[in-house]
């Protein structure tokens, strides 16, 4: 009677399949762990960004906005923010380049996030500039309406 057993080729093929599956599952597990770490870090960074942005939004004085500020977050990061504010052609509307630097005090690592947005802030306007822009807008609107009525 003959003993039935696996040949060496069959054993090696099974080991190769097992090793490949182990590598794929290990890589997937590492990716999941990295995803969790990234999501946790992004949540903390977003909270610090929102807080710095809220400080900017609530600041009525343009000079203080352009100076920027810094604070320490609840997670021990130093948050330094700066803003470059440019007026637009619309009264009380400003183009803001907002830069936030987040520095981890424990590791010394940092990252910088830059955002650009427009912000309507009447307290940042100079009265003369605001009046001039409003008058120009009135004149443009009047010309448009006269042209529209003339074409009817």
- Straight-line N-to-C gap: 108 Å
Order of helices and strands: HHEEEEH
| DSSP E strands, number | 4
Outline the biggest β-sheet.
Answer: 4 strands, antiparallel
Unreliable stretches (pLDDT < 50, length at least 5) are none
How many separate domains? 1
Give Rg in angstroms. Answer: 30 Å
The overall average pLDDT, rounded, is 89
- How are the strands ordered across the major sheet? 1-2-3-4
Produce the secondary structure layout.
Blueprint: H1 8-58, H2 62-67, E1 69-72, E2 77-87, E3 93-104, E4 110-120, H3 127-150
Antiparallel strand pairs: 1-2, 2-3, 3-4
Describe what you observe in this structure:
This protein has 152 residues and is α+β, with helices and mostly antiparallel strands. The chain has one domain. The chain has 3 helices and 4 strands, in the order ααββββα. It has a 4-stranded antiparallel beta sheet. A hairpin with a 5-residue loop joins β2 and β3. The longest helix has 51 residues. The protein is elongated and about 110 Å long. The chain starts with 7 loop residues before the first helix and ends with a helix. The mean pLDDT is 89.
